[in-house]
Amino acid sequence: MIVSNRLPVDRVIDDDGTATWRPSPGGLVAALEPVMRAEDGIWIGWAGVADEDVEPFEADGISIHPVRLSEQELQEYYEGFSNDTLWPLYHDVIAPPSFHREWWESYVKVNQRFADAAAAVSAKGAVVWVHDYQLQLVPAMLRAVRPDLVIGFFNHIPFPPYGIYSQLPWRRQIIDGLLGADVIGFQRVADAGNFSRAVRRLKGYETRGPIIEVPIDSDDPEAGSHRHVTMNRHGGLVRTVLARQFPISIDAEQYQTMARRPEIQERARQIREELGNPQTIMLGVDRLDYTKGIGHRLKAFGELLAEGTLSAEDVTLVQVASPSRERVETYKQLRDEIELTVGRINGDYSTLGHTAIAYLHHGYPREEMVALYLAADVMLVTALRDGMNLVAKEYVATRVDDDGVLVLSEFAGASDELRQALLINPHDIEGLKETILQAIAMPRRERVRRMRALRKRVLTNDVAKWSASFLDALTRSAHGDHPLQNP
Ligand code: GDG
């Protein structure tokens, strides 16, 4: 069973007004769909429409169980606590997090609803995989009523250092919530380390490498039913929880196959032409989010144009900024700032034939994204903090020609694996400018050498491998075995 905020299907209204369901295009669905189908899987989540009860239904062999959210819950639990408290807090307080007690209450209530829904429909001993920061209380809520379940949790975003995490007024409750799981997965080694530190500081529990020892009250009537119960070195009964990194990936084969399609390659050529055949196309693809460092990227490019080191005749930056969280105030402000900057740079440096920045506030079909990746000589990923950043991996998987240069922020989880990218600190604008120039001037031999190494990494560590290794850790855990070694 999967529990996630959003279901893997989107509701579409046909021309005649009838509602149907279409699989949502995300990589998570692609990765989990085969397993879910083979195992009679159940998916629990919100259907994307407020104040509506949707009956459970079957989609491609997966049983879909929608959870209802009211408009007010959407504002308080989702836009509020998830996206305006946890999101900025977990991304190094790049934007100030808002702390509101009503939002927290709504978060607890909605998490309880997801947990109740999961408890009601899961078979005895079922494996339940809970996803992401919106649902951190679900593991413990579920364990409280269903100690027979094997519970996994995966955090898609970073887990912050203790000095930041400790600002959260409900810091202990979240830790307790997560520790209800048997296995807790993070993107990076550093995230798992931050979590273990928070557990030690806030709860005083002992940790041994990736294993956390959670004391069990021996008067607890359920004490005997917990898995992994052992005696610790002080003679107390403990449950063990595994907390470690499982870096997520993409369906690399799918990107590669699309990149080989003649019409997509033709579209890539067309894109270059439409941009006036500049010598260099640089590309940024991000949800319009303050964590992605879009402003830092624009500043570096703007300065290079201002100094005359680059000219809009030679270099175009294509920035896809797909609309995101548009009802949250910080995102409205961000959009204004970015669009002001783009307007200024274009006003100052574009010519009639060459626009400095092609700024696109749209979402595009995946085919178009692949064509853009193919057309881009330099890919700019300048996140200030990012759990993984799939865009970096998609660019690499797409480059079947072994060409293209990836400029990658060391603050994105992907930088742990993609070491042959040009790694940058986006706060260091001079360093970023130098790296952009280095990327533009890089000789083909070096581009190919780096891209081959990057491709090898992404093609071997794809999303199927990611889900298999997480599920393997969970299944082993069901048999009382917490592997200490890397899976
Ligand atoms: C969170 C974490 C972590 C974007 N615009 C369009 C479009 N996209 C696609 C990209 C990519 C996905 O959206 C974005 O994934 P990222 O990983 O880059 O970033 P988040 O959305 O912040 O995701 C992140 C991820 O979860 C997974 O664990 O890596 O760190 O923040 O696939 O291609 N896709 C299409 N049109 C667009 O306009 N089709």
From TrEMBL:
Pathway(s) per entry: Glycan biosynthesis; trehalose biosynthesis
EC number(s) reported in the record: 2.4.1.15
Any single GO BP term: trehalose biosynthetic process
Keyword terms, alphabetized: Glycosyltransferase, Transferase
Pfam families: Glyco_transf_20 (PF00982)
NCBIfam families for the chain: trehalose_OtsA
Enzyme class: transferase
Organism: Leifsonia poae
Protein's job: Probably involved in the osmoprotection via the biosynthesis of trehalose. Catalyzes the transfer of glucose from UDP-alpha-D-glucose (UDP-Glc) to D-glucose 6-phosphate (Glc-6-P) to form trehalose-6-phosphate. Acts with retention of the anomeric configuration of the UDP-sugar donor.
Family: Belongs to the glycosyltransferase 20 family.
Alphabetized GO MF terms: alpha,alpha-trehalose-phosphate synthase (UDP-forming) activity
Subunit structure: Homotetramer.
Protein name per UniProt: Trehalose-6-phosphate synthase
Catalytic activity: D-glucose 6-phosphate + UDP-alpha-D-glucose = alpha,alpha-trehalose 6-phosphate + UDP + H(+)
